[in-house]
Amino acid sequence: MTKQRLILPNDGRPPMPMPAFSNAPRSVAPAGRRLVHLAVDLIDAHPLAPREIYTERMIRERADDLRAQGQHDPIHVIPNPDTPGRYLICDGWTRVQACRVHGALDTLLAEIHEGLSLREAAWFGYEQNEGREQQSDYDRAMFHEKLLADGETAEELARRGGFHKSMMTFLRAYAKLPAGVLDLVRAHPQKFGSRVAYELHRLHEACGEAAALELATEFATHPDDLPVRWLLDRVRELRAQTREAAPAEKKAAPAWPAHQVYDSAEARGYYRRRDGRIQLSLQLAPQHREAFAQGLEQLLKTLGEPASGDPV
């Protein structure tokens, strides 16, 4: 059954019902803008969506608002380049889900932006979200990961996002966290800022997944709402304990380089050198032994006399 929509007067009067619309887009555009009423089932998710977290509570509350107050502002879409007659969301996906999941409205007023690329449309939504409380560092980080995979550079992300490129080190830590920790991040996005994600990533690398998950769980669920400083101190302590407990590693001696091998009737053995050291092991034919020994002794005498005074 088609539901009625509401018109919101700007003179203080209560909302008034207005007739529902068919699935065909219905234009209500002022000059210079293309505004139409779109059926919610014609609107698709954006592949480079700037937000990741949409909680059930968030969608349910938005549905309640739409039922009680109607739609205040238009959503923003672009034509779906792969499916004529359908649209990709730029901004307003929470309202679309509220209508689909909870049946708040059958149609939504939408501004259609012609000529925007997928990437530009995604940045449009990102900039709209930056002014909203629900936007989290995790949302930002996952948006950047999508753009990096799509060919965007870290320098361009920093420029468009309005932050120093060194911030990417912290934001990219989310993608390196184990799955269990990420589940906690999604459940408590405002608790797990980029600095917290970076420190948990360092703990994961140094102490393993179990240590990172245990600390993240305590940080997220502790009844005293632990501050970030507490987590930073605990990461430092745990990493130090791991370093102290680790057995000292023996420094392996550098390998000898390939040596010269002698294998003939005159001499058998090898000669090699490394870092100022020389190894020589030869078995000489009887007729060569005396001459070789005398020549070697004469060479060694140029280095000084042996400490014992005995022949070398």
Total count of helical runs of at least 4 residues = 11
The helicity comes to 40-55%
Task: Name the structural class.
Answer: alpha+beta
- Rounded to an integer in angstroms, the radius of gyration calculated over CA atoms is 36 Å
Q: In percent terms, what proportion of residues is strand?
A: 15-25%
> How many domains, in number, for the residues?
3
The level 1 CATH classification of the largest domain is Alpha Beta
- Named CATH architecture of the largest domain: Alpha-Beta Complex
**How much is the average pLDDT?**
85
- Major sheet: 6 strands, mixed
InterPro entries: Chromosome_partition/occlusion (IPR050336), ParB/Sulfiredoxin_sf (IPR036086), ParB_N (IPR003115)
Keywords: Plasmid
Organism: Sphaerotilus sulfidivorans
GO biological process, one term: chromosome segregation
What does the model show?
The protein has 312 residues and is an alpha+beta fold. The strands form three sheets. Strands 3-4-8-6-7-5 form a six-stranded mixed β-sheet. Strands 9-10-11 form a three-stranded antiparallel β-sheet. Helix 8 (194-207) runs antiparallel to helix 9 and helix 9 packs antiparallel against helix 10 (228-245). The N and C termini lie far apart (108 Å). The protein has helices at 56-69, 93-102, 118-129, 137-149, 154-161, 167-171, 179-187, 194-207, 209-221, 228-245, 286-301; strands at 5-7, 16-18, 26-27, 35-39, 43-44, 75-79, 87-91, 107-112, 260-263, 267-274, 277-284. InterPro entries: Chromosome_partition/occlusion, ParB/Sulfiredoxin_sf, ParB_N.
